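Lab notebook, bench 4. Still working through the backlog of constructs that have no structural model yet. Next entry is a single chain of 312 residues. Request: give me the structure tokens for it.
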Amino acid sequence: MKSIKDIISNFSYKEFIGDENTMIRDLIPLNIANNRNDVLFWCNDLNLQKLSAISNGCIICSEKIYEIGFNPGCQYIIVEHPKLFYLRIMKMWKVENEKYGIHPTAIIHPEAIFSEEVYIGPYCIIGKCKIANQVHIQAHTVIHDNVTIGNRVRIHDHANIGSAGFGFVRNENGKLEKMPDLGSVLIGDDVELFPYVNIDLGTLSVTKVGRGTKIDRYVHIAHNCQIGEDCVITAQVVFCGGSSIGNSSWVGIGSIIKEKVVLGQNVIIGLGAVVTKNIPDNATWIGSPARPLTEFKLISDYLKKQLITQSK
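Model written out:
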């Protein structure tokens, strides 16, 4: 429980209307049935009709919404981006209630290095690695040797970080020999890895995930890949060995990036794309095989015209 004054003192806002000493017990969704004054929620244009029916609570909203939906029984935090402001309060609320520690079922290498501000969940296996501050590692996750994890990283259940790469060489007798993995993995600050993410060790160098990047479920990042900062990698994406992507890029669900392909910064890859060529900065590619969006549209329009012509 915190006072509104304590909450808003951590952030920039335009104006507060109400009693800043009011204590807030809960963060809740916008609710017309709410009759409590000790709750906090946010409102945008889509919920404007609901707002007029609410007579209690503290509301985060824009100046425009406040002027339209003002109710004297409520308190208001006027901000430019209500959803973003509420998100940051939620993060602060969650962090203050988080606990650190090591679950008794976790197996930790005696030479693993980590601070006291780390949470390691049930049945995790932690190898000879380095883990920075305020890191959360959820149940059944495996962190192998030669992995470095930055500050405030969150790793969800069943992730596998630093496993062996899928590298083989066929010998003179036609048999496959495994390529040793002598490299490492580096996970930057503020990265979040969701359940079942797999990141392989570098063969001789480092497999890297840049600061602030978010990686969704069942993503596979092979040996020597380089993932930039502030990227969004959605579910079931595969980065084949040695491929890379620049900062602030977005990769759609189920996409595949061919080995050693280089994607630039601010790139958008459409759902299910199969990327076989390098992509420049600020480009949007879709399809299988992937091609620039403008080219894809031209081909699609041409094929539609051909089908219409043939059907006549």
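Notes after review: DSSP finds five helices and 37 strands in the chain. The first strand starts at residue 2 and ends at 3. Flag for follow-up if needed.
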